[in-house]
Amino acid sequence: MSDQNSHDDLVPSTFEDEPIANPGLPPHVWRPTDVDPKAEKRAERQVAAFFGLSILCAILFLVSYFVFHVGSDWNTVGGLGASNVALGVFLGGALLFIGIGIIQWARKLMGDHEIVEYRHPARSSEEDREATIAALNAGLEESGIGRRPLVRNTLLGAVGILALPAVVMLRDLGPLPGDKLKHTIWTKGMRVVRDVVGTPILVSDLEIGDLVNALPEALFPTEENGYPEIEGVELQQQKVKAAVILNRMLPDEIVSQQTLNWSVNGIVCYSKICTHVGCPISLNERTTHHLLCPCHQSTFDLTDSGKVIFGPAGHALPQLPLAVDSDGYLIAQSDFTEPVGPSFWERDPS
Amino acid sequence: MSIDTSKVAASNTTTAATAKKPSKAGAAAAWADDRLGLATAMKKNLRKVFPDHWSFMLGEIALWSFVVLLLSGVFLTLWFTPSMGEVTYQGSYDPLRGVTVSEAYNSALKLSFDVRGGLLMRQMHHWAAMVFIAAMMIHLLRVYFTGAFRKPRELNWVIGCLLLLLGTLEGFTGYSLPDDLLSGTGIRAADGFMKSIPLVGSYLSFFLFGGEFPGDAIIPRLFTIHVLLIPGLLLALIAAHMLLLVYHKHTQWPGPGRTEQNVVGFPMLPVYAAKAGGFFFIVFGVTSIMGGLLSINPVWKFGPYDPTKVTAGSQPDWYMGWPDGALRIMPGWEFGIFGHTFPFNVFLPIIVLPGLMFTILLLLPFIENWVTGDKRDHHLLQRPRNAPTRTAVMVSLMTFYGLMWAAGGNDIIAIKLHASINQITYFMRAAVFIGPAIAFFITRRWCISLQRHDNETLLHGYETGIIMRSPEGGYSERHLPVSPARAYSMTARERDELPALEGETDANGIPTPGSRSQKVKAKLATMMYADNVQKPTPEELEEAHHHVDHENELQAGLDHPADGHQFDGHHLVDEEHLRSH
């Protein structure tokens, strides 16, 4: 007997000042399957039956795989797709029944005698410790690392400076920000067009309270408007910064002088990108002209320079100065006068 | 082997494993040992003892769901294309046919609609990820509440915390990959988070995204992190976690015959291996059924990512919910510093707070140990009530987490309860500070009450529910002593001892260095322990039993089972016995 004992052995208790003595492990109780051959046979059949059910499920899984088509009937069975439901349930069954069978086997048929093992302290023995420390000291002594500070310090310096190539190697992960975050594609006289379709917008197109998602015309280049070709990554990057919303209100509802100056017949134009962390803002309160960001509920007052009236955003929504061109379409007076989107260190806080 | 196997089911062998003729398994083992020399290590470990308790299964759920993640994840990589290149969707899902989407989104749709079992694997992968993180968290709570993190297991606590952190990051990088509208919104927010870091924020953002957001690099980069970097670290840490578990041997609950020096339970081979192996199939099977029946992350309904679009009710996966809640209830404090903008309203809740909370979690065992000065090894678990301050600390942290998490759903709460989102937010701002404090005090007093109740039970017996009427007409409830086994289990715990103060002044009356920290420690230890109820001393127990005996004598005439029908002539009760414990 090494360190395993029969569970009946009484193990000494360790609690100081013990009010109640350790009664020792309770005696082992035989299970019905240990003493009754009928119960044992029954348990054996149960376990085998579970494994059999697993086989059945696996076969049904294979059948479902070939019978059901995914693409054409993805919406059947409560919107989940017949194929997905059948494959999931039968694969689940095939796995579950193996698991249940094995556990039933362990509980009913495998030995259920608890055994005792003694613990050893996590630490090594005192001898081992001393021997290790002696070996460590001998090694350090022979290397002379303590006696030769010049060697040690230059080595530390050499290894330490290796961090620089490792960090500098990451430099080409991306270009430097430069002033990219501070400008958008909007320029003086650029038409404000509807997103998706790219058609220009007349003042009369908007009713009081309407909210229209819009983009600069430069993102819909045609031969007619003469803007340069833009697509892929660059299109997405410009879209992120240039997206705006148009909102029409009665001119006398406008509170701030600047908002009034930059509006056209009560139509105001603001960046669509939340100044908190950059979600597109889309929830419009028609009567109050408040705009709510669905991500973190920052609320901006469109009548008053996009001021934050609720929520975690730190500064107002940038307003795009609007004008009307000779054809009566809405155009920008200029680019945004401040960076759009989430705040960043280099942004001018005024 | 002194184990009596005479009655073990006849289907099992009744002789010891070292049979006269070498078995097939023996021959295979010999072949392997000739080359690997594993017999020395396996000699003890094949029959290594694992104690049994339902709560020891929680970590196992995490382990097995990680295996499910590896298996289903490998399947997904066979079809998934981690690219942001634009293609026109031409697959089976009608509503999106002809739409320009990224290759990542295109292949996620292909997996969902044109690969048989692909949707199942996608949903299983997502469900298993949620189960993985949930199981890790509940396992962490179990370990903390029962004191299983104490010496010598502190390092395994640290590894476990790292696993939780990495698991969370793995989850975020994973659900961001399909490039759908919801996950894209999450990445967009993450870009805002990074930009909030002073000095380097916009540089970090440009480096991660390979230029301005969104760029075309983020999905491939997240993919490498998701399938190579973090899983590698997770695997290594899980291996270390398990090795340490085996080396330390599992903790166990105190009970008759179960002490600090031993571990009582079933041997690994066959019982524990079968139970754990069987449980793997159960976790796998349950995940399959969830993948089949419970829709999750239907990216085809969200549509492809478009930086100008968003859906109402945008929320991250649940485990990212609590920092999102902090972000929502944070006041909009943005500071200007020498011509620079410091977005403290984003930096504090999303960069500082999670890091701070994680550090606190990591340090909990060391803080407790610093206060108690306890240097002993602990292998017996404690009931949460027997460490009232510790339990209260965790309940307090849980309350903070829960309130933050609820704040992350403030829009949903507002809609469901028809309440004002402004008022919910203002309420939450206060609640995240007041709630944990209230939870701390209630939990601590509750634990102490439970300790008192335990002592009451030990000294005066358990309440039988039988009401006795004395000849004078007074009523009293009859108490009976608990069984010795239960009484032992209830008292098998240490008495809390205040750490001895090291000499505050030296021989010349000059304060010894470090005596201030000694005083702080002493004060903290007093706060931690002073109100705890200690188990009765043998004398107290003796006296109480004496008292009970005396009372029983007085009640000798009444000493019979009472079911309320003694005197109404329904039946005789002389032969009936009360349940014996």
Outline the structure in words.
The complex is a heterodimer of chains A (350) and B (581). With 350 residues, chain A is of the alpha+beta class. In chain A, 34% of the residues lie in helices and 13% in strands. Chain A has nine helices and twelve strands. Chain A has helices at 32-35, 37-67, 76-79, 82-108, 126-143, 149-161, 163-168, 232-242, 257-261; strands spanning 4-6, 115-118, 192-194, 211-216, 244-248, 267-271, 283-285, 290-292, 299-301, 307-310, 322-324, 330-332. In chain A, the strands form four sheets. In chain A, strands 3-4-5-6 form a four-stranded antiparallel beta sheet. Chain A has a four-stranded antiparallel beta sheet with strand order 7-8-9-10, with no helix packed on it. A two-stranded antiparallel sheet of chain A has the order 1-2. In chain A, strand 7 (283-285) and strand 8 form a beta hairpin. The longest helix of chain A is centred in the first third of the chain and has 31 residues, at 37-67. The termini of chain A are far apart. In chain A, 40% of the residues are buried. With 581 residues, chain B is mainly alpha-helical. Among the domains of chain B are: 58-182 and 215-310 and 349-373, Cytochrome Bc1 Complex, Chain C; 382-492 and 533-563, no CATH class. Chain B has helices spanning 24-36, 39-45, 58-77, 103-113, 118-145, 154-175, 181-195, 201-209, 218-248, 268-293, 299-302, 321-329, 344-372, 388-407, 410-417, 421-460, 484-491, 515-529, 538-554; strands spanning 49-50, 86-88, 100-102, 262-267, 335-337, 340-342, 462-469, 475-480. In chain B, the strands form four sheets. A two-stranded antiparallel ribbon of chain B has the order 1-4. Chain B is globular. Chain B starts with 23 loop residues before the first helix and ends in a 27-residue tail after the last helix. In chain B, 39% of the residues are buried. The model of chain B is unreliable at 557-571 and 576-581 (pLDDT under 50). Chains A and B meet through strand 1, helix 1, helix 2, helix 4 and strand 2 of A and helix 5, helix 7, helix 8, strand 4 and helix 10 of B.
